[in-house]
Amino acid sequence: MPGTASSSMTRQLSRRTALGIGLGAATALTLPARPASAASTVGGERLAAPGVQVRRGPGAPKLPKLAARAWLVADHDSGDVLAAYDAHRPLPPASTLKMLFADTVLPAFARDLEHRVTAEDLAGIPAGSSLVGVQAGTTYTVHQLWQGVFLRSGNDAVHVLASMYGGVARTVAAMQARARDLQARDTHVVSPDGFDHKGQLSSAYDLTLCARAGLRSDDFRGYCATKVADFPAGGGRTFQIQNTDRLLTGQGVAAYPGLIGVKNGYTSHAGNTFTGAATRDGRTLLVTVMHPRAGYEAVYRETAALLDWGFAASGKVSAVGELVTPLSERPKSSVSPAPGVPRASSPQAATEHTEGWALGGSAAVAALAGGGLLALRRRGSGEPSGRRRRGRG
């Protein structure tokens, strides 16, 4: 029913989302602090090293010349990282962070759920945000709101969905918990929209993890591949919105053959960011490019160049690292200390470590069960509202 999304959220919150929040809380409550360098070793020691990392074999093509401050090329299916440059360097993510937002929140609502937007839902949108045109007093389906997020990178649509989810603060906590589950340890979430908030950071490695996780969802994959859609304008009218992913639409640069998404981003502070995925001859590659030094279209050209390289290098390079498996998808017996933390010296010690972590998780879930549903009924607001100069996502 329109206007009752908070109670619908209580009914429809997915088991994975609830457990993800519990996992994040458990990690924060029970695990010892990691060394500062621990995050950078996720996926392999070579990915922690500065500079270009690649292991070329006979006949392998040379990497293209790039200006990005960080980038990564990986095989979607195997998780092999084929090449990278400063993969774990923390940088402002811009709207590529919306991949983590979608991976976290998408499972919570049915596509056809309707919600009548209120002024409270739209409170706290950062000044200068990219907007799709959500209006208070108009009813939207969840499907339409996600189109606004993926196609136009609309922070108004993000904040409505976050409000439905229980508020900005709760959404940020859930996103951070999901990042921990993905082992995206370079990522620090301040707001669900990816805007230029102090301390909001991610890395080429982490954004690639988020993309890989999101693409496992048919809805996520469908939204990021949609080029155009009709969006409600109120009064029964609609207007057309187009995807801002230029490698998908071919606007300004050549459309990339076989592209299946994923998400672009831009802010004046972060510069341009992009994670793209493309399929060729049955193989899917993921590429993340962060902050080329010149030109709005450079991020797309460099992504295309890395995709070309990755497909041409098939079978001619060896992996320099891996995209790790989410913690929630590992058998309990295989849960191990974070990279940089020594393994237990005996089977008994290893068992004690795992059971202690699981107990902390149970305690955190119990605590959330006591207070979490109450939080779902509260609406959250973020920073002062306003508009950004030409939001591009």
Q: Any key phrases for this structure?
A:
alpha+beta; disordered N terminus; globular; eight-stranded antiparallel sheet; two-stranded antiparallel sheet
Report on this model:
It contains eleven helices and twelve strands. The two termini are 30 Å apart. With 393 residues, it is α+β, with helices and mostly antiparallel strands. Helix 2 crosses helix 11 (347-376), helix 3 crosses helix 6 (168-182) and helix 4 packs across helix 5. The radius of gyration is 21 Å and the shape is globular. The model is unreliable at 1-38 and 337-392 (pLDDT under 50). Strand 8 (259-267) and strand 9 (271-280) form a beta hairpin.
Please compute the radius of gyration using only Cα atoms: 21 Å
Count of β-strands? 12
The low-confidence parts are 1-38, 337-392
Percent of sequence in beta strands: 15-25%
Summary of the model, kept short:
Helix content is 35%, strand content 17%.
Topology:
Blueprint: H1 5-12, H2 15-30, E1 52-56, E2 70-75, E3 80-85, H3 98-105, E4 114-116, E5 139-141, H4 142-152, H5 155-165, H6 168-182, H7 204-214, H8 218-224, E6 228-234, E7 237-242, H9 246-249, E8 259-267, E9 271-280, E10 283-290, H10 298-312, E11 317-318, E12 321-322, H11 347-376
Antiparallel strand pairs: 1-3, 1-11, 2-3, 2-10, 3-12, 4-5, 6-7, 8-9, 9-10
Helix pairs in contact: 2-6, 2-11, 3-6, 3-7, 4-5
